[in-house]
Amino acid sequence: MTLSQLALLFTAKTDLRPSKTNLSFFVVCVILALIHQLPLFTPSTHIGGSYDRRYEAVAEAFRRNFYEGREREGASLAVYHKGQLVVNLWGGYADRESDRNWQRDTTTMVYSATKAVASLCIAMQVDRGLLSYSDLVIKHWPEYGQNGKENTTVEDILTHQAGLPIIDETITLADAKDSKRMAQILERARPIWTPGEKSGYHAITFGWLVDALMRKVDPKQRGVKQFVAEEISRPYGIDFDIGVSQDQIHKIARMTLPGFMEHIKETLIDLRFLGMFAIFYLRPPNSIVQKIYENPSWADIRAFNSPELQQLDLPSVTGVSNAQNFAKIFALASNGTLLSNLTFELLKTPTIDYWHIDEVVLYPLVKGYGFFYEKHPTIVGKWLIGHYGYGGQSILVDPEHQLVVAYVSNGLKLGTGELCGTYQRIQRSLYSIL
Q1: pLDDT digits (tens, 9 = 90+) for 71-94
Q2: Cα(341)–Cα(333) distance, rounded to whole angstroms?
Q3: Homologous superfamily (CATH) for 48-114+240-270+311-432
Q4: For residue 101, which of 84, 76, 78, 124 has the smallest C-alpha distance?
Q5: pTM: predicted TM-score of the whole model, two decimal places
Q6: How far apart are CA 57 and CA 59, in angstroms?
Q7: d(CA 303, CA 295)
Q8: pLDDT at 261 (0 to 100)
Q9: What is the torsional sign of CA 302, 305, 202, 192?
């Protein structure tokens, strides 16, 4: 039942003799119904790109997000099928305030979806025989085995079981810019649980851990950023960087956060947000999430319009790209170009697929090899592989249908994954035509 119907039902079923309670409830119902139905922004009609006509329903879902005011800024969407680009669309604003439209080469921060690329780099090194997921980290990085971390495995790091979602030592921006200093901080760090016993999302520290490990196993001692540039971006003509170069900053769309009215509207559309708010606002003041916000203090999501942070080499959050380039990486990973079929086959099944509540986000997450997994929407027992990022950024691979889907925007959404309504509309339309 919609809120409009609820308001009508109230007038039909309720005793409407004058009373403050009746009037107040009726007014609230009408206001909520209007918020639910009306767009909060002037809809953008700027849509560019192309698509295979068989994917008309997907293109229409993308357009509707703009026409109905669900996209307050801009977005891009790409779908690869069997290695071919079949949808490449963009639209809206790169910066609404300056009336700058989103163009073919516009990029945006992909936030935690960057972790999918960092994890792919590790998979490529596994594929080359330079390490194994079951290896102890100290086999490659002996200095890491301090303060109870000696039994941590590579897979523990990738599945957020390392026990280091937070670090007691204060991390300055200068620290974050120095890979050697960050490695030393990680070596001294004491885990907050025995590695391998629990899993809790390492929102920021994941990137530093993977980067330090990469530098130890790579024959050229390259970090994730350099490895991506030399092994993926340049050879295959892909615009994806971790910490963008100064001469490319002008292409980045301006990020904006959802306002109060969007919080209300999205909650009315999907009541699951009430549970999310409860988890977020009722957490104790000394929770792990709160400590992540406090250290590093400079990593506030609102600060990522700063060129200094956009240039930061942090493989957990500072990936910069657009949907077409992002999706192309995983089209190459899944078709035998970047990974062998044997290694990709390994990645198709999560390593943590049992019911558990993540220690940090307090929500069940299915994980493996650095990726998040989602139950396949049409095939029982199969998975979609990828990663979500803050505000709705998404990269997902469907091995069964040989699909790769990337969706990114600069008008950050209230939810991500299953709670990102704009993306879920697109995904439903895609699977309706397969």
Answers
A1: 999 999 999 999 999 999 999 999
A2: 9
A3: DD-peptidase/beta-lactamase superfamily (3.40.710.10)
A4: 76
A5: 0.91
A6: 5
A7: 14
A8: 82
A9: negative
- Which of 227, 192, 229, 224 lies closest to 209, judged by CA? 224
Spatial distance between the Cα atoms of 83 and 363, rounded to a whole number of angstroms: 34
Domain ranges of the chain: 3-37, 48-114+240-270+311-432, 118-233
Cα–Cα dist 131/215, whole Å: 12
DSSP, res 253: P
Mean pLDDT of the chain: 91
Q: What pLDDT shows up at residue 264? A: 84
pLDDT in tens, 235-275: 999 999 999 999 999 999 999 999 888 888 888 888 887 88
Angstrom CA distances, 348 to 19, 334, 342, 371, 398, stand at: 60, 10, 10, 10, 9
Q: Which two tokens stand for residue 44?
A: 């953008």
- Percent of the residues in the chain that have a pLDDT greater than 70, as a whole number: 91
Among 75, 64, 43, smallest CA distance to 394 is for 75
Picking from 302, 325, 385, the residue whose alpha carbon sits closest to that of residue 111 is 302
